[in-house]
């Protein structure tokens, strides 16, 4: 089969690789129907050291079960399923607490001999605990929105949940990428009525307004902080959802948040130290967030997607075939595309 590999910064290739097969009794083999490129894939795309042997990449996909191991009981060939971006057994203590990304038997796609999601098929470990069956066909118009349950919408939702967003809280979202826009949608779904979106790409922030943003702040740094505070009577918002991952974004979050408020971060941190010293302490601020346990949220969010009450799939603004994936990476890195859908 064909799959995507990364060889170094800017070097994405689609090559022939061995077909996946059941190796462990809890495995399933899934034929990929839709996958996509994630904003977090752009970090290695921009900085990965060059290697002679490429590594598999991609962690968001949905597809059709083609084969299962003898211990898989909840799935059968022909089932359409969505896979969260981390596999897990869904039975251990961490999983039962909703922290599937800490499952001791779990792991991540494209690592430790497990297939990446940007290919024609994927061997899925711990299939019963990982995969969620979808009650639609593989030609459904809902596939783009259902695919967001693999990562970006669940990540935006996690950011809002960890911040404690509800009808009583005001919200600032930092970042107009796919996760940031999904965080806007998640905050609105949880009842927030005042949502400030900090982003400077008009096409993206227009979608953010459709998703529920009441205000847009294109400025950055101290100017952006001042503008966001001006919109909130000088106090800032109760919660800030940081969906970028840079230190500058975190500093903006602390600048915008109201005293006693909460900053929730889900952007993969590209820094080792941050502004978490005496000022944060004196202002009684809470810093939370982290890697999203997407598997914990899929069943909760699925009905709203199936009913069309939310359309997170609108974050996809370009579709490519598997052979065009390198062009998809270039487009996202150049900010020519918000999020690229892959239709193998």
Describe this structure in words.
With 344 residues, the chain is an alpha/beta fold. The protein is 28% helix and 24% strand. The chain contains twelve helices and 18 strands. The protein has helices at 42-47, 93-96, 127-130, 143-147, 152-163, 178-189, 202-211, 221-231, 247-256, 278-282, 298-306, 325-333; strands at residues 2-8, 11-16, 28-36, 55-56, 61-68, 80-83, 86-87, 107-108, 121-124, 132-133, 171-174, 195-198, 215-217, 237-242, 257-265, 286-289, 318-320, 340-342. Strands 3, 5, 6, 9, 10, 17 and 18 form a seven-stranded mixed beta sheet that branches. Helix 6 (178-189) links the parallel strand 11 (171-174) and strand 12. Helix 5 (152-163) packs across helix 6 (178-189) and helix 6 (178-189) packs parallel to helix 7 (202-211). The chain is globular, with a radius of gyration of 20 Å.
């Amino acid at each position: 089969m064909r799959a995507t590999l990364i060889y170094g910064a800017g070097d994405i290739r689609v090559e022939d690789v061995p077909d996946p097969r059941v190796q462990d009794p809890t495995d399933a083999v899934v034929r990929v129907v839709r996958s996509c490129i994630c904003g977090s894939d752009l970090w290695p795309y921009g900085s990965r050291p060059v290697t002679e042997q490429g590594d598999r990449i991609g962690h968001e996909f949905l597809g059709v079960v083609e084969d299962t191991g003898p211990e898989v009981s909840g799935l059968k060939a022909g089932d359409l399923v969505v896979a969260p971006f981390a596999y897990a057994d869904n039975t251990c203590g961490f999983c039962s607490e909703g922290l599937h990304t800490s499952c001791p038997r779990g792991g991540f796609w494209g690592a430790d001999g497990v297939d990446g999601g940007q290919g024609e098929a994927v061997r899925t470990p711990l299939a019963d605990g990982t995969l969620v069956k979808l009650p639609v066909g593989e030609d459904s118009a809902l596939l783009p929105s259902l695919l967001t349950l693999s990562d970006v919408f669940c990540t935006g939702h996690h950011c809002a949940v960890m911040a404690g967003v509800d009808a009583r809280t005001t919200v600032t979202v930092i970042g107009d990428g796919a996760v940031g826009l999904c965080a806007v949608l998640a905050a609105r779904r949880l009842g927030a009525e005042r949502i400030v979106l900090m982003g400077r790409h008009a096409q993206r922030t227009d979608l953010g307004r459709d998703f529920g943003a009441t205000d847009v702040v294109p400025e950055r740094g101290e100017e952006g902080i001042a503008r966001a505070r001006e919109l909130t009577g000088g106090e800032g918002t109760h919660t800030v959802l940081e969906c970028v991952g840079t230190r500058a974004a975190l500093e903006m979050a602390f600048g915008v948040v109201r005293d006693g408020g909460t900053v929730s971060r889900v952007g993969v941190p590209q820094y080792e130290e941050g502004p978490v010293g005496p000022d944060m302490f004196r202002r009684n601020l809470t810093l939370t967030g982290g890697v999203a346990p997407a598997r914990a949220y899929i069943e909760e969010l699925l009905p709203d997607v199936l009913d069309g009450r939310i359309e997170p799939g609108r974050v996809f603004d370009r579709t490519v075939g598997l052979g065009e994936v390198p062009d998809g990476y270039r487009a996202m890195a150049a900010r020519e595309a918000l999020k690229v859908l892959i239709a193998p």
